[in-house]
Specification:
The protein is an all-alpha fold. It has one domain. It contains 3 helices and no strands. The longest helix is centred in the middle third of the chain and has 17 residues. The chain is elongated. It starts with a helix and ends in a 5-residue tail after the last helix.
Length: 59
């Protein structure tokens, strides 16, 4: 679930409604999005929170 949601977010953030002239341009966009996720933990924490609620896990 977590991986699937993260991949959907990556697809939306880096490729949705965008034209890439080359595969390298597409690759660069996805890598830039991944780097953004690494620097902004809130994007990952949001997905983790949803996953915990889905499994009824409390901290």
């Amino acid at each position: 679930m977590l991986l699937n949601e993260r991949l959907q977010n990556t697809k939306h953030d880096s490729t949705h409604m965008k034209y890439f002239k080359t595969f390298e341009d597409l690759h660069d966009s996805v890598i830039t999005t991944f780097k953004t996720y690494l620097q902004d933990a809130s994007k990952i924490l949001c997905v983790m929170k949803k996953m915990r609620e889905g499994f009824a896990i409390t901290a």
